[in-house]
Amino acid sequence: MSRLGGLDDRGRRRRGYAVRDRQTGARPVSGELLAGVRVVEVGQYVAAPFAALLLAQLGAEVVKVEPPGGDAYRGTMPVGAGLGRFFVPLNRGKRSVALDLKSDAGREALRALLADADVVLHNAPPERARVFGLGWEELHTLLPSLVMGVVSSFGPEGPLAGAPAYDLVAQARAGLLTAHASPGDRVPVRAGGIPMADLAAGMLLATGVLAALVRARETGEGERVEVPLLAAALAVQLQELVWLPGEEDEGPVAATRADLETRADEIATGVATNPYYRCFEAADGFLAVACLNLPQRHAFADLLGLDDPTIEAPDVIPSDPTLVARKREVTAQAERAFAGAGVEAWLGRFGAVGVPCGPVNARERVLRDPQVRVNGFLEEFEQPGLGSITALGRVFLTGSPREPLGPAPSRETA
Predict the structure, then answer these.
(1) Are the beta carbons of 286 and 359 closer than 8 angstroms?
(2) Distances (CA, A) of 357 to 56, 322, 344, 372
(3) Contact, 383 vs 406, CB < 8 A?
(4) Dist CA 139 CA 12 (whole Å)
(5) How do the domains of the chain map onto residue ranges?
(6) Three-state SS string across the chain, please?
């Protein structure tokens, strides 16, 4: 295997991590921010592969290590031979190699890959990581400048340390599943089916790895960065997870049906009493209006002819039932007004007075939104075996040139 960066005479990676061309030794001419950085990803499903994808978007070279049967996500919602609908967008631009990490030969091959790498990412539980040759102490001794990024389930301490989990379980334990209850829900569900804990963990892991790379560049010493799914699911709720003195709930930690119904009522009350930060139904569709400051709320109220006595603090539910009734009537008046014109008409009116707003797009058709397409947030690429596909494009907008990511690795390469 060709080397990227090489070792010094003590067997340590040279300071500055991988910054030279593997074949010529020359520094890369690409302007991408992580050009010359090599990442080895030993991950399955979402979180670790998403972290690797973000690093690839910044210009890193990513080698994905899969078991002989391939990443388990290849078989989820299959759309082609060895390609799953979710696997393709998460693994664009990566090269893949199949290794049996339970065998000596597989672990030896992995070690050769890591000798040329700057970062290794994985989501294996601690014991399995050691079996796979991914134990931190051993690798750090052998490759001191290597940065390791790990997605765990619940963190390194406590009764669940080392226990396996998936996104749904992390969201459940973090209280995220009860954050968006709707009237009539029989059981808690993930909002839109989105793996929020997985995706947040991937973003947090990429951030931590970048910080560790900076330190490794300065000191030659790598670092192990761990992001538990539970912590990620809590992080996306940081605005809500605040308890002032006396606010602690003494009830059971596990949610009950009463909790679900209470939360659904709270959400419904907020929608019915605060017209300034919500969605409305126009004559031909839905739009979202977001008035976070007083001038925006006044502009909104003036445009709709609303007389709201609580406009300065619309989030507060008054103790006076007369005021609550008035808030409900103001909101109902706004709802009636929106029904009188189409979405585009309202967007034009609110745009003219500086009120932030936008259409509520159907997720299945968001690829046709001109703002999405012109910025390359979704882009087309050729996926062997499937043809032209549209999926997530660039999310980092920098002054550096960026080559579009290639397709996901086919099953034959893994």
Answers:
(1) yes
(2) 33, 30, 11, 16
(3) no
(4) 12
(5) 1-275+365-414, 286-359
(6) CCCCCCECCCCCECCCCCCCCCCCCCCCCCCCCCCCCEEEEECCCCHHHHHHHHHHHCCCEEEEEECCCCCHHHHCCEEECCEECCHHHHCCCCEEEECCCCCHHHHHHHHHHHHCCCEEEECCCHHHHHHCCCCHHHHHHHCCCCEEEEEECCCCCCCCCCCCCCHHHHHHHCCHHHCCCCCCCCCCCCHHHCCHHHHHHHHHHHHHHHHHHHHHHHHCCCCEEEEEHHHHHHHCCCCCCCCCCCCCCCCCCCCCHHHHHHHHHHHHHHHHHCCCEEEEECCCCEEEEECCCHHHHHHHHHHHCCCCCCCCCCCCCCCCHHHHHHHHHHHHHHHHHHCCCCHHHHHHHHHHCCCCEEECCCHHHHHHCHHHHHCCCEEEEEECCCEEEEEECCCCCCCCCCCCCCCCCCHHHC
Q: Are 134 and 119 in contact (CB under 8 A)?
A: no
| Tokens 């569709």, residue located | 285
Tokens matching residue 250: 């003494």
Q: How far apart are CA 210 and CA 230, in angstroms?
A: 21
Active site residues per annotation: 198
pLDDT band at residue 413 using 50, 70 and 90 as cut-offs: low
Q: Are 59 and 362 in contact (CB under 8 A)?
A: no
Minimal CA–CA distance to 148: which of 96, 98, 205?
205
Residue 139 reports pLDDT greater than 60? yes
Backbone CA torsion sign across 404, 407, 408, 413: negative
Position 229 pLDDT exceeds 70: yes
Question: Closest Cα partner for 199 from 177, 166, 162?
Answer: 166
Show the tokens assigned to 9.
């005479």
Give pTM, 2 decimals. Answer: 0.88
How far apart CA 271 and CA 264 sit, in angstroms, is 11
Cβ pair 44, 73 in contact under 8 A: yes
Mean pLDDT along residues 96-100:
97
Fold topology of 1-275+365-414: Rossmann fold (3.40.50)
Q: Phi/psi at 318 (nearest 5 deg)? A: -65, 155
Region of poorest pLDDT, from 1-10, 85-94, 109-118: 1-10
Pick the closest to residue 359 from 284, 298, 301, 413 (CA basis): 284
> What's the pLDDT at 414?
54
